[in-house]
Amino acid sequence: MTDVSVAGVGLHPFGRFDGVSTTDMGVVAVRAALREAGIGKGDFQAAFCGTAYGGVATGHKVLSRLGMTGMPILDVEAGCASGGAALMLAAAAIQAGQYDSVLVFGTEKMPRGIIRSSFFEPWQEEAGLASTPAFFGLRAQRLCQTSGITKDHLARVVVKNRRHGAANPDAMYQKETTVEAVLSSRVVCEPLHLFMLCSPNEGAAALVLRRADLVPSGTSVHLAAAVLRSHIPGSVLSESTPLAGLADDDAPAPTTLAATDAYEEAGLGPSDLHVVECQDTDAARELGSCEELGLCEPSGSAALLDSGATELGGRLPVNPSGGLLSKGEPLGASALGQVVELVRQLRGECGPRQVHGAKVALSHTVGRGANAGVVILTR
Amino acid sequence: MHVRVREGLFVEGDPPALLGTRCAACGSVHFPRADACTYCAAEDPEPIALSGPGTLWAWTAVTAPPPGYQGAVPFGVGVVELPEGVRIIGRLTESDPAALSFGQAMELRIVPLHTDEDGNDVMTYAFAPA
Fold it and tell me: Which domain does A295 fall in, by range?
């Protein structure tokens, strides 16, 4: 298979930007990525755009504004993993020899408040069974039960990520918080308090992928794996969001399916990683992600957090960008935002939030569908 | 008058019951009723009525109205394990999480959600402490 490199990355900050459109943000991110890659019109043969709420031809609208159309442009919707799905398709096209350079981007303006998802049937909304925070709360309670996690652990995940986010100029929240402040924010769905949930918001991210031999070796980051998986049924609280599951469920989580494939594709394992950006849509989700990605033993995420390993300066920093708890979550852009962060980490460009000596990085998103995306990058 | 939030999910009666299917090939039980087994893809699973009481496996309370919901808050949401070896997500009649505990017995109720524009009570299924 042809090796794939990341030749350039770009970002529109994550936050709330009144008067700035989905297209405007996409233009900013795409321009920055193309400039870094040193390519322009005619230099890439396809574009993949991740978006969940962008509507018809989101990718076309961005590239039309830049005068760069004619090639295939595909919008990709895979919930929280939309950007990861776009990246998988783009990487596979280069690996297969179909293209030598591909643009991948994601752009999103999320509605305000609790996300309304067309995933749910109207009766589920009417019955009150379309509450995303409720599903997060149920998962959090089960994880607390099986992994010995307390509310104090959940609060400390938020404090850690917000401390990281304070050093990220592209994050929505750049202010540290405390365990006391997290635990005194209102309860949204037990055991989750408001500060333990990420904010749906707005932003864009872009990458240029190229055949490795086209990118100067001094600047390139190698895309070692880009995997997308859906779910195997069984778990009633799976991100596939069913109404029923099995009592003797032993199906691996979609995240575990994707991670297993990604480790195999990269020829690496969890012990080889230096830095991770993982799904932390709520504080318990980060701990569950650590377990499902194999960063610790099953049920070992509380001990992993207690050890300090996942803080900046620790053995394996998790979410040095501040995670979605600091950045917020624009669905189509969030997965690529993680990859942009990790490319910058591997290049040593992250200043006060730099993970020193990072050579192997993993990003992870999972959401409704189920869709789970895992990306591994090396330098 | 009562109307169901969706036909085919449950039957009223004493006791009321959820309507599911069981796969003839692998024995798995589904809710709501499935066209094909969600686990092994065998066609035409057998319609069954699910039994009770069940046991409480997970729970929380929703404190703000979710999208499209017109009823009162807070309300409980939880997962109950039924004798057929299936776990079901549903509303709980108890909205105080501190009043519930792991493994406690739960029975099915048919409860009103809100009144529709024609003055009908819209009914759904929920689990209540037995």
Answer: 130-199+224-378
